[in-house]
Give the backbone structure.
Amino acid sequence: MLTPSPELLDYQAEVRRLLARSWPLAHSRERLDHGQVGDPAAWSALAGLGATGLLVPANLGGAGAGVTEAALVSEELGRVLLPVPYLSAAVTAARLLAGLGPGPARDGYLARIAAGGTATVAFLDDAGRWSPDRVAVRAEPAGAGRWRLSGTAPFVADAGAADFVLVIARAPDGLGVFVVEDATALDARPLACLDLSQPVSRLGFDEVTASRLTDAADVTALMADVTAATLACLTASAVGSAERCLELSTGYAKTRVQFGRTIGSYQAIKHRCADMFTLVQSARSAVYHLLGLLDAGGGQGVGAGEIALAASVAKAHCAEAFLRCARDTVQIHGGIGFTWEHDAHWYLRRAMAHAHLLGDAAYHRQLIARHLGVVRKEAP
Amino acid sequence: MKRTIYQEEHVAFAEAVAAYLKADVAPHVRDWEEVGLVPRETYRALARLGALGIQVPAEYGGGGETSFLYNCVLTEQVAYARATVGSLRVHTDVVMPYVLAYASDEQRRRWLPGMVTGDLMSAIAMTEPGAGSDLAGLATNATRTADGWLLNGAKTFITGGSQADLVIVVARTARTENRRGGLSLLVVEDGMPGFTRGRRLSKLGLLAQDTAELFFDDVRVPAANLLGEEGQAFGYLSGNLAQERLSIAVNAQAQAVAALDVTVDYVRQRNVFGQPLASFQNTKFVLAGLRAQVGAGQAMVDQAMQRHEAGELSPADAAAVKLFCSEMQGQVVDACLQLHGGYGYIREFDICRFYADARVSRIYGGTSEVMKSIIAKSMGL
């Protein structure tokens, strides 16, 4: 299991300070209330801290760091629910591009992400998961090294703000990684989502021109790695959000007085807070376990199966832990926790969205069962 | 909530039974748990109160009732008195209905009077080492002889098996296309050559209820001991499942009520950190939550009893009430034991026994998973 170094924790603390000072949830809520999507200034500040290029190799302007660093940043972003495309661009897209191996086109895109460009990856199936045999976008050769994409990507996060869109599509010779430079060529329909801080669109490809970034790479294996890295940062973000819920709850429990006593002195409240604390700690352990394997991966005897198992454990546990913490935060706050003005519902919305992204807890438990050999049939 | 299921006569029966259980049973429970069964004299004493032959016609010494409610009263009072009646409920709630429904006049004359007085105690042998709820998979078999049947096989988990005078054995008497066909009920009597009893099985709970393995090695069962018609056992057995499951639900519910009662008593007299355990919010909230659950269970059980009296309790309804009440009982005894702290882990305390006894409710009479399968099937799934 990962033990973060003092330097790493210092870096995380610096990100936390920046976000708390300049981009607290109150700030994001204000922008979202006024219909502003995303937060370019916040994104630039993160790029300034090197946070967007953590997974980009050093020679391309990035930090050449591991998933751990990106996960710790994700945890901080989860605390404030900052509406930036961190997971889409700095994690999923960057990890995917980095896994393709050097080449002028791929290097250019990575450099753009490191410099504060935005991107997203169209890869989720109609259940919001990654499954190689359910890729619904098809690619046909269009001559002169160009390709035409058609089909629909049902759920694509942060598509509206993306400078370019990476697409996993089915070509005649198998799955390939494609890039659409002109996002305006896509039929992007923003979906009305429960989580107001994380925009999701449905992307329609109607003979859209694209270029192909790889011919022969094993896209299925690559995407398994990208999914595990994405899950690590997604679950880390859930840990940050859940911990923030705990802080909101304990803070309120210590100051709110009912029947002449602070409500935190009642067992009904203090036990709930203690349960939340336990959930946050165990959730963080599950994420650290996954991060430890991911950063050791490649040549140190950590198999893809072991990483996938740890990713499923983390998702199954963190999804439910975060949801429980968010629900208890509403309950502990009583009536005020049910109001629009309070932040509690923002965390609850995020928790419900997170619970489903890349597979819900039941799905991941099924993958775990399959890994243990107790079920033979494919997970649905 | 006030219960409305019982009439005056049920209340009178409840009072009589409760007085006996408190005076002559509850004080002996721990001794009987040590030996692993309830003495025959207790069954005879309960018989004198009319508890064994409730539905048996008066001509055989019974009460001639049609209602199942008296059986429910007995089950409840045993729980409320923190007593035990060992394997009696199998005799009264499970075996008796088969004898009453399917025995010939000659068989009724031969068995019912003894069954009513407690001189003939009974058991039913369905489960085998390789087959539980899947009755169709039974391997015990009987082949025809000139004057009856030759029975071979082994049964396990047989409640009351070590002291039963009559054992209704479910045996395969023919191989048929239909897996459910070819099963018959044969009554094996104590002392028949080839009929032996194995060890009394050591269990997690229900320590005063004997549970045995039974072996049948070329047992000659006379033709006169075939109960009902040959090959019809599957239908007979499934026909009574709803009542058997209701009986388990009634017991689970009553045990939950009793567990909650002993716990409320306990937390009121136990002091921790200088104040009564009952004064802590967690104690109040946990017990209040359980009270609501137990109330819900009671409403469901009472409703099911009423439907059963009207002959309208469907198999799926019975499965649902058994599922709900046994799961609820499990949650109640667990939370109640936790409130007892270390003492809850000591057998001297009633809650310890309630906890251990509760575990099988979710297993016998069909597991919770089997109940869910039945319910799901009734939903067209």
